[in-house]
Amino acid sequence: MKMNPLFMLMVVLGIVTGMYTIYGIFPVSMPIIFVCSLAGFFIRLNQFLVERRKQTDAGAAIDFTMLRAKQFTPYAGWLKENVRGHDAVTDHVVSHIQQGLAVAAPGQALGAFLLPGPTGTGKTFLAEMVAKALYKDSEPLLLSMSQYKSPQDVFTLIGPPPGYQGYEIGGSLTRPVLENPYRVIILDEFEKAHLDVQHCFYDILDCAQCHEKSSGKMVHFDACVFFATCNCGADALRAIWAETSDPGLRSGRAREAMAREGFERPLLARFTDILLMDQLPPMEIAEVACLQIAKYWRQYGIEVTYTSPELLVDAIRRNVEFQDYGVRQLAGLIREITSPSIEEARRTGATRVRLELDKNTGQVAVST
Ligand SMILES: Nc1ncnc2c1ncn2[C@@H]1O[C@H](COP(=O)(O)OP(=O)(O)O)[C@@H](O)[C@H]1O
Ligand SMILES: [Mg+2]
Q: What DSSP assignment string belongs to 40-107?
């Protein structure tokens, strides 16, 4: 068994001190023992302080040189291929993140975007795709803010103080970033979080750091991009967007509009930009349908080379009932429409197929 030398020294000192106290032997060694004890104490204290500094300075682990050299602009095309109908928003996000990367430094996050818009328009999806492009080895941190509705949820976010239940697990925001600081953080439906929880983000967005309450460690968000999505304010922003295309004017008025929706102005001021992701026009819905058909069939190892317009029109017509939910229901609908044909295609061993709508039966017809 390996013994800690410091522990062994303490044992020896203990024995010697004991012998002196009981039998009065080794009187000359007492000053030496005293000095040794002091030295041992200071060595241990120094070790403790070094360990603590290492833990506290997790931010020093962020490789800023790597971040500054990162090229994100080339991903704009890929993002726009996947997230349909929001090219201007995507371009904005990409250019801000690229700027953030170029000046990456301690004390500032790479970007923070507030994405208001009706449900099912791709807000969370855009953030997830940015995460894939920016940090392909690191999962985005998706926090559903509707689960942070009470003041006590601040502890869930940044960890309860030591001794409280669950303190060893840490915070749902802080612990994953301590483990891996290269993160895209998605605050989904941000307006639903309690104001106390929203206040936590003042410091985090301001100076890109906060203390995890349970461990006392400093968490650094310098390599993070924040996306806060919200479902309110879309009508007001739509009116502003129709009035002006000037980015400066839009930004100022958007902050006012979102303040009227209940967000606090100091918090709004900390977002790099407020970008409306509005309802998709029919053409883009058709494109999303195409993408979802291709994605669904790809899971079965089959490539869809063509989807007929009639089939898409049929899917969109059936989606009308759910159009207030954006394209959220479309994936399920497409699964329902095309599932029987997947069986058939697999039976024939097809790997590339064309999908059309059989006008007589109203069913999907598959050809190779
Ligand atoms: N603009 C879009 N382009 C491509 N797919 C989309 C788009 N909007 C929504 N989707 C699809 O619908 C799903 C749900 O969208 P989501 O981003 O969660 O909506 P929300 O705007 O409510 O956050 C996504 O996972 C994606 O598959
Ligand atoms: Mg969402």
A: HHHHHHHHHHHHHHHHHTGGGGS-HHHHHH---GGGHHHHHHHSTT-HHHHHHHHHHHHHHHHT--TT
